[in-house]
Amino acid sequence: MSAVRKSTNWFALGVTAAAVVLVLVIGGVVWFANSQATSPGTVPESSAVDPDTGAIAVGSGEQTVDTYVDFMCPVCNSFEQAYGPTLQQLADDGTITLNIHPIAILDRQSQGTAFSTRAANAAYCVAVDDPANVTAFVKAMYAQQPSEGTAGLDDAAIATIAKNAGASDAVTSCISDGTYSRFVAAVTEKTPLQAGVSSISTPTIAINGTVLANRTDLTGDPQKDIVERLNG
């Protein structure tokens, strides 16, 4: 009695193997795309920059005030005018560490030029070049803040502001290359939410880690809103 020979369908096996490889390849592409989308890219290397939160530290006081700002945001500018001098004094006298978080939520307001991202990127370029110039850069950017809905300042204008604030010529390529653009996107997602809102807003202020609600906690009086909370 002869044995029955079973034929192997190599074509089917080949197709199956190819399908497995294809799934692996597609899976790898999806994983790579997702990892690229969430990767912080180049991280600013500066003694003043927290690589996890994106905070640029001004001063070294034990207490902290964190400000999350978008350079296209007119309310951020108003906040700077009302509260900036007090925050600077508190940082200068050693009371606080002022943590400035440049973020980008208003790129849609700059006619496709991504001004918010480019401006925040420039702040990190300045911090890496010399963090001592960050405060002057921030003030100058608000002094020349473009209106929402305009194209905003171009890279050359931003670089000029940075250099006038004391930065070296090295910031020019950092700004035009968008060196920290992906980092800006990554840290923007880490902005804490204010009570009663469902999306990130600017400015967002936190005192010793407690996030304030702009509508109820910011009255325009820095003594009441900032100093008394620090002393309380």
UniProtKB/TrEMBL annotation:
SUPFAM superfamilies given in the database record: Thioredoxin-like
Pfam families given in the database record: Thioredoxin_4
Keyword set, alphabetical order: Membrane, Transmembrane, Transmembrane helix
Protein name per the record: Thioredoxin domain-containing protein
Domain Thioredoxin-like fold: 62-214
Keyword Transport in record: no
The keyword Metal-binding appears for this protein: no
Listed transmembrane segments: 12-33
